[in-house]
Specification:
The protein is of the alpha/beta class and about 625 residues long.
Length: about 625
Amino acid sequence: MKHMIGCNYWGSKAGIDMWVAWDAESIRKDLEHLYEYGCRVLRIFPTWRDFQPLHPMRAGNGFIKEVYLHGRERMKDEFGLDESCVEHMHEFCKMCEEIGLELIVSIVTGWMSGRQYLPPIVENLNLITDPKALRWQERFVKGIVKNFKNEKSIVAWDLGNECNNLAGGPRNSDDAFLWSILIANTIKSQDQTRPIMSGMHGLTPCIESGHWLIQDQAEATDILTTHPYYSPTIKATDSYPDEMRASVIPTVQTQFYADIGEKPAMMQEHGTFTEINMNHELGATDVKQHILSGFFNGSKGLLFWCGMDFADISMPPYEWIGMETRLGLLKTDYTPKPVAFSIKECQKIIEDIGELPDKEYEVACYVGEGQDFGHNFLDYSVPAFVLTKQSGLDIKFYSRTSRDIPDAKVYLYPGIVAWSGTGYVSWQERIMEKVREGAIFYISFDGGFLHDFEALTGLVSHGHSFRSYVKSCVLDGEKFSFSNVKEMRLENRDAEVICETEDHNVLFARKRHGKGYVYFNAMGIEKSLYNHDYNAFTLEDKANYYKFYDIFMKDIAKDKPILCRNKNVLVTHHKTDENEYIVSAINYSRKEQAPNFRVKEGMTYEMLYGKFESIPANGTVILKVKKI
């Protein structure tokens, strides 16, 4: 699928009421301005309350005898759609076709911006499990797709807007899966020519930790979606938005969904949450970085929230939630905010680069049971992503639900926790077969269990404590500290000790198995770095935590066409043919950085974007590297 850049759209004059307070003139003006500033795709929302305004007509004892449109007229067909809203949406689709805008239609829009928008017929029902609610959703979805499937501007359907926020909710993952399959199959019953997007946020990879699962959405839909705002929900606001820790989260979360679901994924919503989160200039830099970082790490697009400001609208949710009034690319007088210019610039950059093959990876990272409660998988996946890239390699994620173990040179199990440890015992044995042939197997400890621990690591455990500690060690002549970690008491049997804590307890060791090694880190350093020791990402105190990975990755990284000696800059390689690569280098820091590139002997480079010698704060350079 092609890369999508654009925004989520509501009309500037009426916001969420745009379909019932139709103003064709202002809407056309909105669309023309959004196109001018680089938007090529809009996600739109047929509000459930307005498009299917069904009222129960009750007889004695509250019995529902009939269902009427608006409580005034009989339905003309089984769908119960409002004719005027349907007419307005057809007109909207035609406008977009004329202007050159493509549309994603997010069908079940019963939740929007902190408010439920429901027809009276389903109010007070569980919208995910109640048979009556499901009956009317099925008819609504079928009616929308049947009515609009011939509109040329529509390129994709979406289950709905964050439907895991609909009233009621699932009792278990089976409920969530069946709802998703019902909506997806209803779409397919009318149109099998367009892809279906998930529209969900806040998914989990593990049935023990939630009902809305990445792999279930991947089974039901064609494209997975993240909504990775700078938000406390994913602990992003524990760091400043222009620091590495926060600025890689959207990219990592989106890649994680794609890798675990084995389906494409995109940043379907992203925005700045108004000036209190970040000023307009910083917001523009932030969004540009996320578009380009996502693009080079596999995201299929970014849609900004939202196209327009709604400062003049005084109804809920705009009355309820302070940030909802000023989230637009454009102000109410159509003055563009700086972020609009970022959208336009990124559209041109990506258009010039063209479609890329998947990025190369050498590292397979397992995220398992106990690591994925809520968004906790980010505690492990974000540091693993950063430390791997700082060491010159790239990463792919997998989990217990993956169909197979990826083929890789390095296997990471960062922060094993809970009962299953490394997933399946048989998988551990298969990885060890690869180790004996020369692969690396790295494990860090966060309280979990391992099959054949002593034989695997060459260490003997005298117990571990789940109390919080602050520990330090010296590696490669540099002192490192870790906060709130679990401690193991370890005795060396036949391992090679790499470093110890200040009280002479083994912290990091390796054991040879055939041609390869097993590395064991006795502290869950990844979780510590994500939650406590943020300097691992800012690098302002020169604490080079990447060395815990570099020690076993550097020999592999020597073969990469481009290496970057500045660890604020993360590099991604796309092999376009046997002799050529497209390489991105992104500065994830708030300061201009000299990347200190090393180009592999026998290769030359051409700058496609930016300068070889320096990268602006949170900026990007793009190179074409090829054999001489």
